[in-house]
Specification:
heterodimer, A: 148 residues, alpha/beta, 5-stranded parallel beta sheet, B: 264 residues, alpha+beta, 5-stranded mixed beta sheet, 55% helix
Chain lengths: 148, 264
């Protein structure tokens, strides 16, 4: 199971993620936070692999929260979520895995989930297998070409 | 500068004219002096017309930036996201919120300019619809109480109450990270309507409070615009009292006898 945390200052938004994720057997929600500071406090214990993070929160800017989370958990994959597209470039500078716009459609959300699952599978497969990395990289670049 | 130059030219032409008719000088230049005068006056008129145009452009630009600030994409999309989420588990509530959202949109955007006055009940309706939406978005973080005298029926300048409540939520309650309360009271006292928006949020720092009407930052465009409009209409703007960590209290008053049908 891939461990995931959700951070959004609006509770209905968290519930919506929960709803969108409910049928997915590969992903487990280990924490939901309306306050990013609390998430930062608890992340070292939870050790999530993925975080969905709202960019626009009153207590702390999502971008700053992301830097803090990455400091504690350098391997964390972050999916930024926002209602309004203005920080995308800044987010990608922080190695964002994806960038979702609210309201989120199930279709678009599934693409994000596929990306997460692909990446995690890839990471597992390539642990200590150098030859596989090369093969996979070739395959990925091929796939990337098709996707784009 | 142009004014002085043109005055001087008119004077020069005038003197030349007198001298010409008195036969003190006799070049043919005098015959076209009236055309010259006419041209100078025409140029003056053009300059003045341009100035008036510029003034109106500036006024329109200030108004536009207020209205643009009113259209908050963050608010609109987050609100839609909230409705989608709530519709999964409480369809009735989602429906009611959509009705509130319609009121919000209608009362916020359905007009030509800011100089219009509206019945006070429209302003209250907008404020109530808006706070319903914010409460749905932030659930237990916001408590809102309205205390409104029932027998008030006057016209008031539009888009004053809701933007002030919005400020209280955004800059007062939400940064607190825990539940906050907003009390909105509209009372008739003698010949005045007294509006009060009181929150127990984070408050405003003293030095920031002093600057609040001075700086023309983008984020302040709302409160600054409201202050200017109220001052122009009634001679008195917003009274802001705030204590850091304790909350903010904003009051303003509108006299009843001024029906407010005039231009802003």
């Amino acid at each position: 199971m891939i461990k995931l945390i959700l951070i959004d200052d609006e509770k209905p938004a968290l519930k919506e993620f929960e709803y969108l994720l409910k049928d997915n057997k590969l992903i487990e929600i280990v924490g939901m936070y309306t306050n990013p500071l609390k998430a930062i406090d608890e992340i070292s214990e939870l050790k999530p692999e993925v975080a969905f993070l709202d960019i626009n929160m009153p207590q702390m800017k999502g971008i700053d929260a992301a830097s803090k989370l990455l400091e504690i958990c350098p391997n964390l994959d972050i999916v930024f979520v926002t209602a309004y597209d203005e920080y995308a470039i800044e987010a990608f500078e922080l190695y964002a895995m994806d960038y979702l716009l609210k309201p989120i459609s199930q279709k678009r959300f599934n693409i994000t989930l596929e990306r997460i699952i692909d990446k995690k599978n890839y990471e597992k497969e390539t642990e200590g297998k150098v030859s596989n990395i090369i093969r996979d990289k070739k395959l990925r670049s091929l796939l990337g070409g098709i996707e784009s | 500068m142009l004014n002085i130059t043109s005055m001087f030219l008119i004077l020069a032409f005038y003197i030349h004219d007198i001298l010409y008719w008195d036969n003190k000088i006799s070049d043919r230049f005098g015959e076209i002096i009236y055309i010259g005068l006419f041209l100078v006056i025409l140029i003056q008129m053009l300059i003045q017309a341009r100035r008036i145009q510029e003034f109106h452009d500036k006024k329109t630009a200030a108004e536009l930036s207020f209205l643009q600030a009113q259209i908050k994409p963050h608010f609109l999309y987050n609100t839609l996201n909230t409705f989608i989420s709530i519709s999964r588990y409480d369809v009735e509530k989602a429906r009611n919120l959509l009705c509130d959202f319609s009121i919000y949109l209608r009362r916020s955007f359905d007009f030509k300019d800011l100089s219009q006055f509206v019945p006070i009940k429209n302003e209250i309706e907008l404020a109530m619809a808006y706070t319903e939406i914010e409460q749905a978005r932030h659930e237990e973080y916001i408590v809102v109480n309205f205390d409104v005298d029932e027998d008030i029926d006057i016209d008031v300048p539009r888009l004053v109450l809701q933007p002030i409540i919005e400020n209280a939520i955004k800059h007062g309650i939400l940064p607190k990270g825990e539940c906050g309360t907003i009390n909105i009271s509209i009372k008739k006292i003698e010949n005045m309507i007294i509006f009060e928006v009181k929150d127990n949020g984070v408050g405003i720092k003293e030095e920031k409070l002093k600057q609040i009407f001075k700086q023309d930052e983008k984020s302040r465009v709302g409160i600054l615009n409201i202050e200017r409009r109220l001052k122009k209409l009634y001679g008195k703007g917003l009274q802001i009292k705030s204590k850091e960590g304790a909350g903010t209290n904003i009051t303003w008053r509108i006299p009843i006898n001024i029906k407010g049908k005039g231009e802003l």
